[in-house]
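Good morning,

Attaching, inline, the backbone tokens for the sequence recovery test we're adding to the shared suite. The designed sequence is right after.
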């Protein structure tokens, strides 16, 4: 096959040939195969892990100031490469260029955070906890860390992990999605140009077999995963069983509640953008609108009008609002679920099935779809569709909406549209979800807070990036010190608990 090969990045070198049955990368707008992936062999995975372990030994000894300097340089290079990265993302993932640039910007926020690593790693010190005794505590890196990332944010999600892992002194191996692997190779180039030593950031491509090798290897100390819940669960069980620290972020079914007192135009605009942006392929997409009955007809009419006005075509065209889905399989699955909802009695208020933009008839498109009168028993409600499909459920009041959200197995994000502070407060207090928006449709926390859902949306103890990212990639050490002067030498004591002298 004559397609270009997306290489692994191991110890600073590009390596790998695509095997006889290669993983293919498609341009989702045209449906064409545009590249093939060099899935890492067992030897290549071993070489990367060994190189990471070697690199960790010296990188973890590099001064905090020097580490911060690499992060600052990476920041500058990423900002300067935003257009190029966005073009790579749009070509392989399908999203529109402006959204792909937004993804780079959100990743940059985590780099900004990691630039402050000297401050973030400041320890604690308690002088004179007993007579002549002082205690210091601080955090140290773990060693070789691994990130396994999904197709939908090929720049942002690796940047949720790697800047914090590396700034705290670890080595990091990225296993990106084989659907859109090229951005990860560009990230490796930028890390290298920023002055990061070879082996500290590496890329291994492939599928479950490559991941399996990383999860159980004795030199790997921590695994960050972002992807679907079934895989998150499997990765968590395997890696925890092998003694690793694991954060495994899973899927989502994010609900918005639209109350009758909300600003109708603003709520409709927000829900349309959050349901159909990136063709609904965001883990924080709003895929369910729980709308108070008294305003439901009006809300749906507004949403349908706005969604109909969206331009659907190739993401590299600046006039386009929504690109294709990532694969023919993902599109076909979404369209099947729409069909099943219609057959089960939902009203298809806007039907995006069969969308074929002119000039891109072979692309993986489905248009914005609005399903009214969805029942919680329908697959359009229970399944994460991960496509441009908004399910509308009519509710009588806020409490019914909160009960529905809390009954859902996912708990990633949620949003409330209201003019009432009391309703917002009740919602924040009662809802069983990790990230909450009050009149904010996609409440992804800024880089200096941490990101994470509840329930099936995150398996593990730590949220990602921000302060929880620092805690995840480091382990605590505490020293209790005494430097007795000869005249103050204490009596030997058999009393373990004596802190009073
Ligand atoms: P996925 O679970 O299919 O794949 C994620 C990664 O895991 C990829 O690198 C893939 O190659 C690898 N993988 C797949 N199957 C595996 C297996 N059996 N063993 C080991 N590794 C395996 O997810 P996806 O389709 O790439 O991404 C979409 C999913 O990611 C959605 O469910 C979405 O909600 C979720 N997501 C969640 C968040 C979050 O923050 N919670 C963010 C982005 C995406």
């Amino acid at each position: 096959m004559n397609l270009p090969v997306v290489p692994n990045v191991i110890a600073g070198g590009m390596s790998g040939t695509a095997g006889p049955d290669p993983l293919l990368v498609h341009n989702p707008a045209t449906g064409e195969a545009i590249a093939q992936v060099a899935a890492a062999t067992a030897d290549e995975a071993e070489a990367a892990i060994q190189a990471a372990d070697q690199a960790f030994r010296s990188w973890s000894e590099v001064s905090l100031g020097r580490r911060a300097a690499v992060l600052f340089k990476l920041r500058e290079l990423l900002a300067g490469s935003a257009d190029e990265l966005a073009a790579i993302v749009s070509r392989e993932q399908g999203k529109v260029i402006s959204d792909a640039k937004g993804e780079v910007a959100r990743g940059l926020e985590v780099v900004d955070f990691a630039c402050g690593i000297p401050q973030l790693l400041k320890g604690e010190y308690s002088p004179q906890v007993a007579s002549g005794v002082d205690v210091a505590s601080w955090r140290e890196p773990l060693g070789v860390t691994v990130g396994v990332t999904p197709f939908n944010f090929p720049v942002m999600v690796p940047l949720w992990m790697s800047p914090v892992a590396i700034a705290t002194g670890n080595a990091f191996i990225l296993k990106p999605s084989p659907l859109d692997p090229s951005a990860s190779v560009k990230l490796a180039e930028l890390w290298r140009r920023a002055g990061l030593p070879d082996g500290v950031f590496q890329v291994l491509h492939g599928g479950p077999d490559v991941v399996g090798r990383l999860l159980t290897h004795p030199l790997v100390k921590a695994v960050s995963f972002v992807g679907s819940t079934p895989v998150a669960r499997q990765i968590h069980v395997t890696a925890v069983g092998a003694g690793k620290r694991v954060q495994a972020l899973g899927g989502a079914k994010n609900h918005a509640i639209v109350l009758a007192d909300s600003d109708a135009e603003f709520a409709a605009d927000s829900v349309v953008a959050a349901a159909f942006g990136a063709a609904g392929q965001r883990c924080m997409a709003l895929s369910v609108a729980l709308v108070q009955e008294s305003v439901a007809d009006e809300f749906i009419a507004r949403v349908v009008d706005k969604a109909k006005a969206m331009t659907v075509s190739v993401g590299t065209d600046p006039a386009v609002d929504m690109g294709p889905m990532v694969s023919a399989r993902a599109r076909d699955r979404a369209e099947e679920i729409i069909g099943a909802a219609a057959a089960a009695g939902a009203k298809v208020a806007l039907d995006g099935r069969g969308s074929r933009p002119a000039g891109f008839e072979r692309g993986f498109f489905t248009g914005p779809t609005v399903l009214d009168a969805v029942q919680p028993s329908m697959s359009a409600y229970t399944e994460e569709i991960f496509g441009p499909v908004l399910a509308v459920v009519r509710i009588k009041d806020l409490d019914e909406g909160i009960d529905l959200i809390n009954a859902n197995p996912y708990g990633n994000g949620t949003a409330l549209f209201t003019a009432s502070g009391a309703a917002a407060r009740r919602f924040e207090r009662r809802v069983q979800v990790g990230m909450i928006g009050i009149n904010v449709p996609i409440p992804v926390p800024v880089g200096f807070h941490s990101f994470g859902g509840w329930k099936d949306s995150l398996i593990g103890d730590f949220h990602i990036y921000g302060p929880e990212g620092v805690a995840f990639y480091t382990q605590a050490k505490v020293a209790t010190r005494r430097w007795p002067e000869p005249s103050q030498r204490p009596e030997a004591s058999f009393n373990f608990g004596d802190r009073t002298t």
